[in-house]
Amino acid sequence: MFKKILLIVLTILITSCELTSPLGPEEFEVLDGLVQGLTTQQEIQFLKGDEAFNEVFDSSKGLGPLFVANQCSTCHPGDGRGTPFVTFTRFGQDGPGENLFLNKGGPQLQHKALPGYSPEALPENATFSDFIAPPVTGLGFLDAVSDQSLIDLSDPNDDDNDGISGQVHWNNIPDYVKLRPNTISVNGKYITRFGKKANAYDLLHQTAGAYNQDMGITSLFEPIDVYTNLEIDPEVTTETVNSIVFYLKTLKAPIQRNTDDLSVIEGREIFDEINCSSCHSPTLKTGYSDISSLSQKEFYPYTDMLLHDMGEELNDNYTEGFADNSEWRTPPLWGLGLSKDAQGGRYFLLHDGRATSIEEAIILHSGEAENSKNDFLSLSKEDKGKLIMFLESL
């Protein structure tokens, strides 16, 4: 009898909680979440990666002694865009080619230190640029786009005379990366696609580098300690690194909102009319992926993943790999309207967060985007508003 009463009470409590608990956010209101169609085993691996992405490191887990942050989510809050309050500084390269400051702490400044150690300081005469972290959602789709698709999008010599000459980043890559199916190589260099300058080949390259340069943690892939510059035993397991790579690959793509709003629809038309879509390509398609949910899928990132010359306003006199100083990879615009949720309720846009509104970010475009910027400036106030509404719906 007692057990029956207890069961009835528990049922009432559970039902009551379900009726009175506030509803969670809709899927399109957040960046976090996994792609659809994963197997149960893949979902378990995703959750392991999610846990590792939010792990807090200290000295007992290998942090530092020099570092930038002590967990991945410090730089990518809610899987979203970072802020100027948590920046990372790259230094030591002022033109395409080799970084000459690798023996002086480059390519990244570790400006924090464990007790008893001194933070790193910028070497004299080193060029540098401050970055904020990009959002990490939808990366698996970008990773699965074939090299040939990116080459087809490129126009390095501006053969169509439209003033836009996007190009892939032919770059050196570490030995540990696993080449994509149908990878294309030219003179020993490969197409890299992740990072502000498209300097990383894939998500393993990006993740292992972040552990090492952001947190001072060595792995099997990046075994050189940033403090001693000596090779040491791995401080994070290969399993953990691979779990985060899988997590990043299987985070869902941001979902557009307000797609039936007439102003949003007209804003998309204006986006095309002023040629923003030449660089911020609305649609891409993945090639083959061993994760079936990512294989041969059409998706809508609003990027071509190519390097473009953005003019003197965005020339930081610093570069990575073989990109020019004023060249930047086209950042995906999907999730733009949710950026403020991870940035304390306001925008910090462009590579370093200097733009505090979408309009300001557009105005700072130059170089290959000069014509589109001028066309934006000539729009009526009403049409500018519609364009901004469209961008905020992404």
Biggest beta-sheet profile: 3 strands, antiparallel
Q: How many structural domains are formed by the residues?
A: 2
Distance between the termini: 57 Å
Q: In DSSP terms, counting alpha (H) and pi (I) runs of 4 or more, how many helices?
A: 12
Strand order across the largest sheet: 3-2-5
- Uncertain runs with pLDDT below 50, 5 residues or more? 1-21
**Overall mean confidence score, pLDDT:** 92
Order of helices and strands: HHEHEEEEHHEEEHHHEEEEHHHH
Count of strand segments: 12
Global Rg: 22 Å
Overall 3D shape = globular
Strand content: 5-15%
Question: Considering DSSP H and I runs of 4 or more, what fraction of the residues is helical?
Answer: 25-40%
Structural class: alpha+beta
List keywords for this structure.
three-stranded antiparallel β-sheet, 2 domains, 394 residues, Cytochrome Bc1 Complex, Chain D, domain 2
Tell me the layout of helices and strands.
Blueprint: H1 2-20, H2 40-53, E1 66-67, H3 72-75, E2 88-91, E3 108-109, E4 112-113, E5 128-131, H4 139-143, H5 147-153, E6 169-171, E7 185-186, E8 189-192, H6 203-215, H7 238-250, H8 262-273, E9 284-285, E10 298-299, E11 307-309, E12 327-329, H9 339-342, H10 358-363, H11 370-377, H12 381-393
Antiparallel strand pairs: 1-4, 2-3, 2-5, 6-8, 7-8, 9-10, 11-12
Helix pairs in contact: 2-7, 6-7, 8-12
